[in-house]
Amino acid sequence: MGGVTPAAERPEPPIQDAGGPAPSPVSHPDSASTASSPHAPGATVPLPVGSPEAAAGEPTGALLRPAVRLIATDLDGTLLRDDKSVSDRTVAALAAAEAAGIEVFFVTGRPARWMHVVSAHVHGHGLAICANGAAVVDLHRGGRTLEVRPLPRPKALAVVAALRTAVPGTSFAVELTSGINYEPEYPPFPVDPGATVASAEKLLSESGQDGDRPVLKLLAHHPELTPDDFLARARAAAGTHASFTRSSPTALLEISGLGVSKAATLAHCCAERGIAPEEVVAFGDMPNDVEMLSWAGASYAMANAHPDVLAATAGRTVANNEDGVALVIERILANGGRQLAPVAPPAAEPS
After folding, report:
1. Which of these, 20, 54, 111, 120, could form a disulfide with 47 (CB 3.0-4.6 Å)?
2. Which residue from 233, 129, 189, 162 is spatially nearest to 174, judged by alpha carbons?
């Protein structure tokens, strides 16, 4: 495992700090509530002499920066470099965060069987949120699925019927807990040679070969439309049946059960641990990250992020190929495990 190069020996690119709630937060019934102690996020407390905040010139009585208890990071285009590797610097930063008592969750659109790229870099908890929130898996146990939030097959069939009419030329694949199956027209998956190839209607039939297995995602591909145009058309045609998002540079949509998202499952996992949104720092780069980034107390868009992600985040870091996640983690740890920017004080009530 490679170490983190000392900051004094490496010129650091600038990052834009993120503090306080991100724009348009996503409310969720499972979200943990903020504790009411004097040192809860947002509490007004005197800053100790010699503290980093006082040294930065913040006045006594400024808002205490929230402690970071959990880091939630996307993988492709965010934590991983473009060659799908995890740099030595990032490995060291993740290990240092967990050693400091900060949990790290990988939150990805990938299925559990594609988590080998990071499974060697989990430490204390070993959990990952996969398939855009449809599954929680234990990477310490070979990717064993602990929780599933499936797309009901009747809803998936309704989506297929709606898109066949509204967006001709669409082809489909069905992501199951056991693997992926797809239509003949769908771009093939060379890494899944055991896939069944048939019409989506047959693949989604409850009386078919895999009819008893939960559907994690329905994938839809179009050979001609732009990705954002395809997403807009699909949501308009079938948004009442399922949740639509995307993370690919091609016109490939990821379709989950209504209400299933990275944000919803992350909120549920945090609530189980007594972790409030204000104690979470999140990283992402594509539209399937937007809800998670908006829910987290602090969020960072990669320099290579989609415009929707840039619009949803207050923080910026450098690109995935420049270890943007590691850079922020290092600075959080150097700041005593707290957020990098003070929370804006609440507006004064009229007298």
Report:
1. 54
2. 189
Quick one: 348 exposed, middle or buried, by C-beta within 10 A (0-12, 13-18, 19+)? exposed
Handedness of CA 174, 72, 18, 2 (dihedral sign): negative
Average pLDDT over residues 145-155: 95
| Token reading at 248 | 């690919």
pLDDT at 269 over 60: yes
E strands in 98-212: 103-107, 127-130, 135-138, 144-148, 171-176, 179-182
**pLDDT of res. 346:** 45
pTM above 0.90, yes or no: no
3 state SS of 344: coil
Give the closest residue to 30 by CA, choosing from 168, 150, 137, 133: 133
Q: Going by C-beta distance under 8 Å and a sequence separation of 6 or more, which residues neighbour residue 340?
A: 15, 17, 18, 19, 65, 298, 315, 328, 331, 332
Exposed/middle/buried for 135, CB within 10 Å: 0-12, 13-18, 19+?
buried
CB 268 within 8 A of CB 262: no
Decide: helix, strand or coil at residue 320.
helix
If DSSP codes are grouped into helix, strand and coil, which group holds residue 92? helix
Strand residue runs (E) in the chain = 70-73, 103-107, 127-130, 135-138, 144-148, 171-176, 179-182, 215-221, 243-245, 252-256, 280-284, 298-301, 315-316
